[in-house]
User: Fold these one by one.
Assistant:
Number 1:
Amino acid sequence: MSIKIIKTTHMSFKIKNKYINFLFKLLDIPLHGEERRERDAFIKVLLQKERDAEDERLSLLQELSKKDKNGKPIIKADNNYDLTPENLTLFQKELTDLMEAYFIIDIFDSNKKQISTVIRLFENTNSPLTYSDGKILDEIIEVMKHPEEVKDEQKKKLIKDDESKNNIGGGGGENKKEESKTEEEKTE
C-alpha cells in the first residue's frame, strides 16, 4: 500500500464576524427565481457562520461565569450569566476579539455562481447606506471579487493492482478507479 499526497488549490475569502448582520440586512430584499435561490444559499452559509460565532460566545459565557455547587453556570434572574467584574471585562475583550475575527467562505465550482450573484446584489443595492456602511460594503465586495488562493494537501491511500486482486469481490475495480482519479488530480 502506498500513500500519495495530492496538492490542490481553491479560492476563498474572509469577512469579519461583526458584519454578518449587516450582510443579512442588505440581502433581505424581494427577489425572484434563480437570483433568489442563489441569495438564499449564501444566506444559509451566513446563518451557519452566525451560529458558529454564537456557540463560541455562549461557550465563553459558560466558561467565565460563576458556577453553582454542581459546577453549572449561574444564570441571574434577568436571564444573564453571573460574571465577576474581572470575568466580565475578560468576556468583553474576548467577545470583541471574536467579532473582529474572520470567517472564511471557500469558493468551489458549486458556489461560484451564488457568490457572483451576491456580489452583483451588493454592487446594485438600493438600500440607503451611511458613509461608513458604504465603506464596509465596498471592502466586502473587493474581498469577494479578489479571493485568496488556499493550498490543500490530501492524502490518498492507493493499493497496488496485484494486491487488490486478492481482495474479496475480485478485480479491485474500485481501487483502480481511485488510482486513475488520483493521477488525473495530479495533472490538474
Number 2:
Amino acid sequence: MLSAIGNLSVESRRHLLERVPAEKANLYTRDLVAVLVGDEEELLAVVFARAELRHYQDTALRGRPTASWLKRAAMALDHGWTAEQVVAACTSGLVGWTGSEAEYWGAWVEDFRKLGRSGGRHRKQLSEAGVRRYSSTGSSRILFRFSRVKVLLDRYPADDQWKYPTM
C-alpha cells in the first residue's frame, strides 16, 4: 500500500501531508510521511512548515546520501538542524541488513567520504559528520556484539562439560 501512495501525484501527496494528524509520531505514520515526502523538496517543506509535525521531519532524511538526499539535508540544515542530527536521521527507521556488518557500515562511511570530495555549501559539514557517526557506529556495534559473544564464551566454555541437547 505504501508503494501505491508513493506513486500519487505531488499535489495529491501534498494534500495528504497537510492532513497528517499532529499527534505524536508512531511507526506507521512515520513510514507514511516518509513515502508521502519521497524525494520531493517541496513536500518536505510542508512538513517543516507545520511545527506540530516536527516528529516526522527526520523521516524524509532516511537513506544513503544521494543528490536528492543532499537537497533535503540542506533544507533541514536551513531549518536549524545540526549536521550531526541530519546524518543520524539517515538510519532512523532502519531495520537491518544482510551480509557483513563491517562492510555495511563501511559503505556508509565511504558514501559520506564521497559526499565531501566535491564542493557545495553543506557537503563538507555533512561529510565530516557522517564519517564520524558511521565510523563509530559500525565499530561500536561490532565491538558490542564481540563483547557479548566473549561473555557467553567465558560463561559457557566449549569443553567436555558442555553438552548440546540431543533429540
Number 3:
Amino acid sequence: MNLKLANKLKEKNILHKDGKIFGTIRTKGIGDEHIRKNKDLIITELHDDFCMCFPPRDPSMIYRIHYTDIITVGGMEPDRLAKAYELETDGSPMAPRKKPGRKPQPHGI
C-alpha cells in the first residue's frame, strides 16, 4: 500500500486500532535466517509510516509492519478500497464522474 493512501485511510478512520489487516512480516526461520511471511494481523498502534500488530491467536507476539507491506485491509485490497471511498491509489481525491443510474424518461408519451 502507498504511504499517502495509508495516511488518507487513517484520516477517514478506515485503517484504525483493532482493525484487521493481512500483511507481510519479517521473522526468523531455521538457522536464524530472516524470512518474510504473510499473516493475518490486528492493529494495536498506528504511527506515521508503520503500525504495531499482533496475530489473532497469539496476542503476545507484537510485530512492527510498514504500511507498504500491507496486502489487504479488512479483507479488501487497498486499491479497491480507495476506489470505494473515491480516492486515487496515491491518496488524492478522485475526479468527479457521472454515476450510473436510470435514464430520465421523456414525458408525454
Number 4:
Amino acid sequence: MDATSAKATTDKIRGLHAGLRAAVESAEVSEESIREWKQTTAQLFKEFNGFRKAASAADERSRAERAMLREEMREELVSREAVGARTAERYRAFAEQGSSSAGALFDRAARTAGAIEMSIDDISRHALSVNQGTVLLHEQMNQDGA
C-alpha cells in the first residue's frame, strides 16, 4: 500500500471512467472494450482488497501497540502507587516511634519525589501524578499536630 501503487490504481480508475464516458457518449461499444473493462474492474477490485487488507492489518497492529503501551503505563502507575504506599507506611511507623526528625525526613523525601514527578511529567505529558497520597498523609499529620 505504497504511494506508487495507489497512484497506479487511481490512474486505472480514471482510465476506466474515461472509457465508460466515451462509451456512453457514443452509441456503439465493442465486445473487446467490454472485456477490457471487466478485466480492469477485476484487477481494481483485487488491488482495492489488497489496500483494504493492508489498512486493516495496520489498524490492528496500531490497536495492539496501543493496548501494550496502555498496559505498560498501567503497570508503571500501579508500581508507583505501591512504592508510595510502602513509603507512607514506613513513614507512619517511623513517626509513631516518636522521632523528632521524621517531619524533616519526610519533607526532604516529598521534595525529592516531587522533583522526580516533575521530571517524568516533562518527559511525558500523559504521565499522571499518582504520588499524591503521601503528600496528603503528611499534610493531615501536620494539621493534626498543629
